[in-house]
Amino acid sequence: MIHFWEQPAWRRPFLATMGLGVLVAAGVGDDGPWLSGAVLFAAALGFGVLFRLFPRGLDFALGTGVGFATYAALFTVIGRSAFPDVSDAVLGGAFILPVFAFLAAVIRRREGLRRIVEEGEIPDEEHLRRIGKFLLMMAVLGTACLSLPANRLGAAWQGVALVAGCALIGVLAARAVRELVRLLVDIAQLMDAIGGRAVSLVVPIAAYAALFSLITVVFACLYRVADGVSRGRLFAGPDGPIDLGFRDALHFSVVTISTVGYGDIWPTDDGARLLAAVEVLAGQILLLFGFYEITRNRLSAKDDRARDQEE
Questions:
Q1: What's the CA gap between 76 and 79, in Å, rounded?
Q2: Residue 268's closest CA among 236, 221, 243?
Q3: Which Gene3D superfamilies match (predicted)?
Q4: b/e string for 47-58 if b means 16 or more Cβ within 10 A?
Q5: Comparing C-alpha atoms, which of 88, 296, 138 is closest to residue 208?
Q6: What is the percentage of the chain residues whose pLDDT exceeds 90?
Q7: How far apart are the first and last CA of the chain?
Q8: pLDDT tens digit sequence for 128-176
Q9: Please, which residues bridge with residue 235 across strands?
Protein backbone atom coordinates (compact mmCIF):
# COMPACT_ATOMS: atom_id res chain seq x y z
CA MET A 1 0.00 0.00 0.00
CA ILE A 2 1.36 3.41 -0.99
CA HIS A 3 1.47 5.83 1.91
CA PHE A 4 -0.28 9.19 1.58
CA TRP A 5 2.91 11.23 1.64
CA GLU A 6 4.50 8.99 -1.00
CA GLN A 7 1.92 10.02 -3.59
CA PRO A 8 3.33 12.96 -5.58
CA ALA A 9 -0.14 13.77 -6.93
CA TRP A 10 -1.34 14.37 -3.38
CA ARG A 11 1.54 16.39 -2.07
CA ARG A 12 1.23 19.49 -4.22
CA PRO A 13 -2.53 20.17 -3.82
CA PHE A 14 -2.49 19.32 -0.12
CA LEU A 15 0.46 21.61 0.63
CA ALA A 16 -1.04 24.38 -1.50
CA THR A 17 -4.36 24.34 0.33
CA MET A 18 -2.70 23.91 3.71
CA GLY A 19 -0.63 26.99 3.01
CA LEU A 20 -3.87 28.88 2.54
CA GLY A 21 -5.28 27.22 5.66
CA VAL A 22 -2.28 28.33 7.74
CA LEU A 23 -2.65 31.90 6.47
CA VAL A 24 -6.39 32.00 7.26
CA ALA A 25 -5.81 30.43 10.68
CA ALA A 26 -3.23 33.08 11.53
CA GLY A 27 -5.50 35.85 10.27
CA VAL A 28 -8.58 34.95 12.34
CA GLY A 29 -6.72 34.50 15.64
CA ASP A 30 -7.71 37.76 17.31
CA ASP A 31 -8.56 36.67 20.87
CA GLY A 32 -6.61 33.50 21.43
CA PRO A 33 -5.29 30.31 19.86
CA TRP A 34 -8.47 28.23 19.94
CA LEU A 35 -10.17 29.53 16.81
CA SER A 36 -6.88 29.51 14.90
CA GLY A 37 -6.24 25.95 16.02
CA ALA A 38 -9.77 24.91 15.02
CA VAL A 39 -9.36 26.46 11.57
CA LEU A 40 -6.00 24.76 11.08
CA PHE A 41 -7.35 21.41 12.28
CA ALA A 42 -10.43 21.68 10.07
CA ALA A 43 -8.25 22.58 7.07
CA ALA A 44 -5.94 19.60 7.57
CA LEU A 45 -8.83 17.20 8.15
CA GLY A 46 -11.04 18.56 5.39
CA PHE A 47 -8.38 18.83 2.71
CA GLY A 48 -6.95 15.44 3.67
CA VAL A 49 -10.31 13.70 3.37
CA LEU A 50 -11.28 15.43 0.13
CA PHE A 51 -7.96 14.79 -1.62
CA ARG A 52 -7.85 11.21 -0.35
CA LEU A 53 -11.28 10.52 -1.81
CA PHE A 54 -11.01 12.81 -4.85
CA PRO A 55 -7.36 13.23 -5.94
CA ARG A 56 -8.21 15.70 -8.68
CA GLY A 57 -5.17 17.97 -8.64
CA LEU A 58 -4.21 21.54 -7.96
CA ASP A 59 -7.24 23.14 -9.61
CA PHE A 60 -9.64 21.20 -7.35
CA ALA A 61 -7.41 22.14 -4.42
CA LEU A 62 -7.83 25.81 -5.22
CA GLY A 63 -11.59 25.37 -5.48
CA THR A 64 -11.82 23.76 -2.06
CA GLY A 65 -9.42 26.36 -0.66
CA VAL A 66 -11.64 29.19 -1.86
CA GLY A 67 -14.69 27.59 -0.27
CA PHE A 68 -12.92 26.95 3.03
CA ALA A 69 -11.40 30.43 3.24
CA THR A 70 -14.78 32.03 2.51
CA TYR A 71 -16.47 29.96 5.23
CA ALA A 72 -13.76 30.79 7.76
CA ALA A 73 -13.93 34.51 7.02
CA LEU A 74 -17.73 34.72 7.20
CA PHE A 75 -17.85 32.60 10.35
CA THR A 76 -15.27 34.78 12.10
CA VAL A 77 -16.98 38.06 11.19
CA ILE A 78 -20.51 36.91 12.05
CA GLY A 79 -19.44 34.90 15.09
CA ARG A 80 -17.49 37.69 16.74
CA SER A 81 -20.07 40.34 15.82
CA ALA A 82 -23.27 38.50 16.77
CA PHE A 83 -21.85 36.58 19.76
CA PRO A 84 -19.19 38.90 21.20
CA ASP A 85 -19.03 37.30 24.66
CA VAL A 86 -18.49 33.73 23.49
CA SER A 87 -15.09 32.37 24.43
CA ASP A 88 -12.53 31.59 21.78
CA ALA A 89 -12.69 27.90 22.68
CA VAL A 90 -16.46 27.72 22.11
CA LEU A 91 -16.03 29.67 18.88
CA GLY A 92 -13.45 27.16 17.67
CA GLY A 93 -15.64 24.19 18.54
CA ALA A 94 -18.63 25.71 16.77
CA PHE A 95 -16.50 26.32 13.68
CA ILE A 96 -15.66 22.63 13.39
CA LEU A 97 -19.26 21.36 13.64
CA PRO A 98 -20.34 22.13 10.03
CA VAL A 99 -17.01 20.82 8.73
CA PHE A 100 -17.51 17.49 10.53
CA ALA A 101 -21.09 17.20 9.26
CA PHE A 102 -20.05 17.96 5.67
CA LEU A 103 -17.12 15.53 5.70
CA ALA A 104 -19.24 12.78 7.27
CA ALA A 105 -21.78 13.19 4.47
CA VAL A 106 -19.00 13.16 1.87
CA ILE A 107 -17.58 9.90 3.24
CA ARG A 108 -21.03 8.32 3.41
CA ARG A 109 -21.84 9.21 -0.20
CA ARG A 110 -18.33 9.01 -1.61
CA GLU A 111 -19.11 6.58 -4.43
CA GLY A 112 -21.73 8.80 -6.02
CA LEU A 113 -19.70 11.95 -5.41
CA ARG A 114 -16.54 10.47 -6.93
CA ARG A 115 -18.23 10.27 -10.32
CA ILE A 116 -19.17 13.95 -10.12
CA VAL A 117 -15.63 14.97 -9.21
CA GLU A 118 -13.87 12.79 -11.78
CA GLU A 119 -16.23 13.29 -14.72
CA GLY A 120 -17.78 16.65 -13.91
CA GLU A 121 -21.33 17.64 -14.72
CA ILE A 122 -22.71 20.57 -16.63
CA PRO A 123 -24.69 22.73 -14.18
CA ASP A 124 -28.38 22.23 -14.85
CA GLU A 125 -31.44 24.08 -13.64
CA GLU A 126 -32.02 21.65 -10.77
CA HIS A 127 -28.44 22.00 -9.49
CA LEU A 128 -28.58 25.79 -9.70
CA ARG A 129 -31.92 25.83 -7.91
CA ARG A 130 -30.68 23.64 -5.07
CA ILE A 131 -27.39 25.40 -4.54
CA GLY A 132 -29.18 28.74 -4.77
CA LYS A 133 -31.64 27.57 -2.12
CA PHE A 134 -28.77 26.47 0.15
CA LEU A 135 -26.91 29.76 -0.25
CA LEU A 136 -30.12 31.69 0.38
CA MET A 137 -30.70 29.77 3.60
CA MET A 138 -27.13 30.51 4.68
CA ALA A 139 -27.68 34.21 3.93
CA VAL A 140 -30.92 34.21 5.92
CA LEU A 141 -29.25 32.47 8.85
CA GLY A 142 -26.32 34.88 8.82
CA THR A 143 -28.63 37.88 8.61
CA ALA A 144 -30.70 36.52 11.49
CA CYS A 145 -27.58 36.14 13.64
CA LEU A 146 -26.60 39.75 12.99
CA SER A 147 -30.14 41.14 13.31
CA LEU A 148 -31.51 39.33 16.35
CA PRO A 149 -30.37 40.67 19.76
CA ALA A 150 -28.33 37.58 20.63
CA ASN A 151 -25.49 39.83 21.81
CA ARG A 152 -27.70 40.93 24.73
CA LEU A 153 -27.72 37.41 26.14
CA GLY A 154 -25.20 36.18 28.64
CA ALA A 155 -22.03 34.51 27.50
CA ALA A 156 -23.39 31.01 28.17
CA TRP A 157 -26.59 31.54 26.18
CA GLN A 158 -24.64 33.17 23.38
CA GLY A 159 -22.56 30.02 23.20
CA VAL A 160 -25.69 27.85 23.10
CA ALA A 161 -27.15 29.96 20.29
CA LEU A 162 -23.90 29.84 18.32
CA VAL A 163 -23.51 26.06 18.65
CA ALA A 164 -27.17 25.54 17.72
CA GLY A 165 -26.77 27.73 14.64
CA CYS A 166 -23.63 25.88 13.55
CA ALA A 167 -25.35 22.53 14.12
CA LEU A 168 -28.16 23.71 11.85
CA ILE A 169 -25.60 24.74 9.22
CA GLY A 170 -24.02 21.30 9.51
CA VAL A 171 -27.38 19.58 8.92
CA LEU A 172 -28.09 21.76 5.90
CA ALA A 173 -24.58 21.18 4.50
CA ALA A 174 -24.94 17.41 4.94
CA ARG A 175 -28.26 17.44 3.12
CA ALA A 176 -26.83 19.54 0.29
CA VAL A 177 -23.50 17.70 0.12
CA ARG A 178 -23.97 16.64 -3.51
CA GLU A 179 -24.65 20.19 -4.63
CA LEU A 180 -21.76 21.57 -2.58
CA VAL A 181 -19.32 19.08 -4.10
CA ARG A 182 -20.61 19.99 -7.55
CA LEU A 183 -20.04 23.65 -6.65
CA LEU A 184 -16.43 22.84 -5.68
CA VAL A 185 -15.99 21.11 -9.03
CA ASP A 186 -17.46 24.13 -10.83
CA ILE A 187 -15.03 26.41 -8.99
CA ALA A 188 -12.18 24.04 -9.87
CA GLN A 189 -13.11 24.14 -13.55
CA LEU A 190 -13.30 27.91 -13.42
CA MET A 191 -9.87 28.05 -11.79
CA ASP A 192 -8.49 25.79 -14.50
CA ALA A 193 -9.93 28.04 -17.21
CA ILE A 194 -8.52 31.14 -15.52
CA GLY A 195 -5.12 29.45 -15.27
CA GLY A 196 -5.16 28.71 -18.99
CA ARG A 197 -5.98 32.30 -19.83
CA ALA A 198 -3.39 33.63 -17.39
CA VAL A 199 -0.59 32.04 -19.42
CA SER A 200 -1.32 34.39 -22.32
CA LEU A 201 -1.23 37.37 -19.94
CA VAL A 202 2.26 36.77 -18.58
CA VAL A 203 4.02 39.10 -21.01
CA PRO A 204 1.53 42.03 -20.69
CA ILE A 205 1.52 41.68 -16.90
CA ALA A 206 5.31 41.66 -16.76
CA ALA A 207 5.50 44.73 -19.01
CA TYR A 208 2.89 46.56 -16.93
CA ALA A 209 4.67 45.70 -13.66
CA ALA A 210 8.01 46.86 -15.06
CA LEU A 211 6.61 50.20 -16.22
CA PHE A 212 4.70 50.65 -12.96
CA SER A 213 7.91 50.10 -10.99
CA LEU A 214 9.87 52.45 -13.24
CA ILE A 215 7.36 55.31 -12.94
CA THR A 216 7.04 54.81 -9.19
CA VAL A 217 10.78 54.88 -8.55
CA VAL A 218 11.41 57.83 -10.91
CA PHE A 219 8.78 60.00 -9.27
CA ALA A 220 9.93 58.95 -5.78
CA CYS A 221 13.39 60.21 -6.70
CA LEU A 222 11.93 63.46 -8.07
CA TYR A 223 9.98 64.03 -4.85
CA ARG A 224 13.05 63.34 -2.75
CA VAL A 225 15.33 65.58 -4.82
CA ALA A 226 12.78 68.40 -4.91
CA ASP A 227 12.31 68.25 -1.15
CA GLY A 228 16.06 68.03 -0.55
CA VAL A 229 16.98 71.14 -2.59
CA SER A 230 14.03 73.22 -1.37
CA ARG A 231 14.47 75.82 1.38
CA GLY A 232 11.30 74.69 3.09
CA ARG A 233 9.56 71.37 3.47
CA LEU A 234 7.34 70.43 0.52
CA PHE A 235 5.40 67.67 2.25
CA ALA A 236 3.45 67.38 5.46
CA GLY A 237 1.96 64.67 7.66
CA PRO A 238 -0.53 64.59 10.53
CA ASP A 239 2.06 66.21 12.83
CA GLY A 240 3.01 68.99 10.42
CA PRO A 241 5.82 69.49 7.85
CA ILE A 242 8.11 66.47 7.41
CA ASP A 243 11.60 65.90 6.07
CA LEU A 244 10.85 63.54 3.19
CA GLY A 245 13.21 60.56 3.18
CA PHE A 246 13.38 58.17 0.26
CA ARG A 247 11.22 55.55 2.00
CA ASP A 248 8.50 58.16 2.56
CA ALA A 249 8.94 59.40 -1.01
CA LEU A 250 8.58 55.88 -2.40
CA HIS A 251 5.50 55.28 -0.25
CA PHE A 252 3.94 58.54 -1.41
CA SER A 253 4.75 57.69 -5.02
CA VAL A 254 3.02 54.29 -4.78
CA VAL A 255 -0.01 55.85 -3.09
CA THR A 256 -0.19 58.59 -5.70
CA ILE A 257 0.11 56.45 -8.83
CA SER A 258 -2.46 53.99 -7.50
CA THR A 259 -4.76 56.88 -6.40
CA VAL A 260 -5.24 55.27 -2.99
CA GLY A 261 -4.79 58.41 -0.92
CA TYR A 262 -4.05 57.21 2.62
CA GLY A 263 -3.74 60.78 3.82
CA ASP A 264 -0.59 60.19 5.88
CA ILE A 265 1.64 62.28 3.56
CA TRP A 266 0.56 65.09 1.25
CA PRO A 267 2.28 67.85 -0.76
CA THR A 268 2.02 71.42 0.53
CA ASP A 269 3.89 73.13 -2.33
CA ASP A 270 2.33 73.94 -5.70
CA GLY A 271 5.26 72.46 -7.58
CA ALA A 272 5.06 69.19 -5.64
CA ARG A 273 1.30 69.08 -6.20
CA LEU A 274 1.82 69.55 -9.93
CA LEU A 275 4.42 66.79 -9.94
CA ALA A 276 1.97 64.48 -8.15
CA ALA A 277 -0.71 65.33 -10.72
CA VAL A 278 1.68 64.39 -13.52
CA GLU A 279 2.33 61.04 -11.83
CA VAL A 280 -1.43 60.40 -11.54
CA LEU A 281 -1.77 61.12 -15.26
CA ALA A 282 1.13 58.78 -16.02
CA GLY A 283 -0.56 56.10 -13.95
CA GLN A 284 -3.83 56.46 -15.87
CA ILE A 285 -1.97 56.26 -19.19
CA LEU A 286 -0.20 53.15 -17.93
CA LEU A 287 -3.55 51.63 -17.00
CA LEU A 288 -4.85 52.26 -20.52
CA PHE A 289 -1.68 50.70 -21.90
CA GLY A 290 -2.28 47.62 -19.76
CA PHE A 291 -5.85 47.22 -21.02
CA TYR A 292 -4.70 47.69 -24.60
CA GLU A 293 -1.92 45.13 -24.33
CA ILE A 294 -4.18 42.55 -22.69
CA THR A 295 -6.87 43.05 -25.34
CA ARG A 296 -4.34 42.92 -28.17
CA ASN A 297 -2.76 39.79 -26.74
CA ARG A 298 -6.13 38.03 -26.47
CA LEU A 299 -7.09 38.98 -30.03
CA SER A 300 -3.72 37.75 -31.26
CA ALA A 301 -4.23 34.44 -29.44
CA LYS A 302 -7.68 34.04 -31.02
CA ASP A 303 -6.24 34.73 -34.47
CA ASP A 304 -3.53 32.14 -33.91
CA ARG A 305 -6.08 29.51 -32.86
CA ALA A 306 -8.28 30.29 -35.85
CA ARG A 307 -5.26 30.01 -38.17
CA ASP A 308 -4.31 26.67 -36.65
CA GLN A 309 -7.83 25.34 -37.13
CA GLU A 310 -7.83 26.39 -40.80
CA GLU A 311 -4.54 24.63 -41.37
A1: 5
A2: 236
A3: 1.10.287.70
A4: bbbbbebbbbeb
A5: 296
A6: 25
A7: 48
A8: 788 888 888 888 988 888 888 877 888 899 899 999 999 999 999 998 8
A9: 242, 267
The radius of gyration computed from the CA coordinates of the chain, to the nearest angstrom, equals 26
**Is residue 243 within 8 Å of 227, Cβ to Cβ?**
yes
| 94 sits in which H/E element | helix 88-108
Task: List, in sequence order, every beta strand (DSSP E) within the chain.
Answer: 235-237, 240-242, 266-267
Would you say how long the chain is, in residues?
311
- Residue 210: partners with Cβ closer than 8 Å, 6 or more residues away: none
Find out whether 271 and 234 touch, Cβ atoms under 8 Å. Answer: yes
Helix, strand, coil percentages for the chain (3-state, nearest 5): 80, 5, 15
3-state secondary structure of 80: helix
- Domains of the chain listed by start with CATH number: 4-196 (no CATH), 202-310 (1.10.287.70)
Model confidence over 42-84: pLDDT tens digits?
Answer: 988 988 888 887 776 555 666 788 888 888 888 988 888 889 8
Distance CA 135, CA 42 (A): 21
- Could you give the CA distance from residue 110 to residue 175 in angstroms, rounded to a whole number? 14
How many Å is the maximal CA-CA distance in the chain?
77
| Strand arrangement, sheet containing 240-242 | 240-242, 235-237, 266-267
The pTM for the full model equals 0.70
Query: What 3-state DSSP class applies to 235?
Result: strand
- Of 83, 81, 74, 92, nearest to 157 by C-alpha is 83
Who has greater pLDDT, 190 or 278? 278
What CA–CA distance (Å, rounded) separates 204 from 293? 6
